[in-house]
Design brief:
By secondary structure, this protein is α+β, with helices and mostly antiparallel strands. It has helices at 16-25, 54-63, 81-90, and strands at 2-9, 31-37, 42-48, 77-80.
Length: 91
């Protein structure tokens, strides 16, 4: 499993319908965590890159009703969980 963390900025604050739809995004297989920061107008997503791609995650957020303002930075935070476990076992 390869975990990717990505943060998006959004335009208008999400309404109740969007908040409920985001709860559904959390249920998508491969989405590990969704954190909404209303003060910074950002949403942070942690997902399994072996299951989902960044464009798919972006589309899920758009379908939930978020107006995404930018693409994530090119240096996405990627963590290979299996490699970390193997390294920890050897140490």
């Amino acid at each position: 499993m390869t975990t990717v963390d990505v943060t998006y900025h959004y335009g208008a604050p999400p309404r109740e319908r969007s908040i409920l739809a985001l709860a559904g995004v959390r249920e998508v297989y491969g989405i590990r965590r969704v954190d909404l920061d209303e003060r910074a107008s950002t949403i942070h997503i942690e997902y399994d890159a072996t299951r989902l791609s960044e464009p798919v995650v972006r589309q899920l957020l758009r379908r939930a009703g978020l107006e995404l303002m930018d693409k994530p930075a090119a240096d996405l935070s990627v963590v290979d969980v299996e490699a970390e476990k193997a390294a920890a076992a050897q140490a």
